[in-house]
Design goal:
It is a single chain. The protein is an alpha+beta fold. It has one domain (5-204): M1 Pyruvate Kinase, Domain 3. The chain is built from four helices and 13 strands. It has helices spanning 80-89, 149-154, 159-166, 198-205; strands at 5-12, 16-20, 27-31, 36-39, 47-50, 53-54, 72-76, 115-118, 130-133, 136-143, 171-177, 179-181, 186-190. The strands form three sheets. The protein has a seven-stranded mixed beta barrel. Strand 2 and strand 3 (27-31) form a beta hairpin. It is globular, with a radius of gyration of 16 Å. The N and C termini lie far apart (40 Å).
């Protein structure tokens, strides 16, 4: 990681109806996976970080996202071209314009992340590492374990499988010190004990079961 780690966008969203088709027929569930940018490089509005996440953000299923150990979900912008390619292969219509932040037709927040980051991937950060961003300090806790709502958000039914297979999960953080963040802030990585990387943790959780 020779280049600086940067915070590209802060995203939040309310709990709202989401149409899913996991059982064939469409049904409506409650989710907050749809996030919209609150702070971007060309409009770096400050956003308050509280112990349970960004001000203005909500979570529907606290077993998946939310609580002290999953207060913030971080996602590497490096994976956005991967998802754009998969959506194209699945026949999902792309937006007419491209995001200047992600470099794709997907806007920040498309993966349900709170913080979109540049310069830090799952194999470069360990569970227990700390991230210092201005006055805020976070602790890396775990990789994301995606649920069926990601399929609906991405627009194709094998999105969850692709996230698991690729290891492009992003990761959850707890908030050690609250404060205010804005797009463009530099992220300082403070190593912890470094027993398992986020990617290693994900692989161990999802390894095939012996029969």
């Amino acid at each position: 990681m020779s280049s600086p780690i940067r915070l590209l966008a802060l995203c939040a969203g309310p709990v709202a109806p989401l149409v899913v088709t996991e059982r064939g027929a469409p049904e409506t569930v409650i989710s907050a996976i749809v996030k919209s940018p609150l702070s971007l490089p060309d409009s770096p509005a400050p956003v308050r970080v509280r112990p349970l996440g960004l001000e203005g953000d909500e979570q529907a299923d606290l077993t998946v996202h939310g609580g002290l150990d999953k207060a913030l979900y971080l996602y590497p912008v490096a994976h956005y071209p991967f998802w754009e390619t998969l959506r194209g292969q699945a026949g999902v219509p792309a937006a007419a314009s491209r995001s200047s932040v992600t470099g794709t037709s997907l806007e920040p927040g498309a993966l349900g992340e709170n913080l979109l980051i540049d310069g830090l991937r799952e194999d470069e950060v360990w569970v227990g590492d700390r991230l210092r961003i201005g006055e805020v300090e976070l602790r890396v806790e775990s990789p994301r374990q995606p649920c069926y709502k990601l399929n609906a958000r991405m627009g194709f039914k094998w999105a969850v499988k692709m996230m698991v297979d690729s290891g492009f999960t992003g990761f959850y953080c707890s908030v050690l010190r609250t404060g205010t963040l804005a797009a463009g802030d530099t992220v300082t990585l403070l190593p912890g004990e470094r027993v398992l990387s986020v990617l290693d943790t994900h692989r161990l959780r999802n390894r095939p079961k012996r029969r």
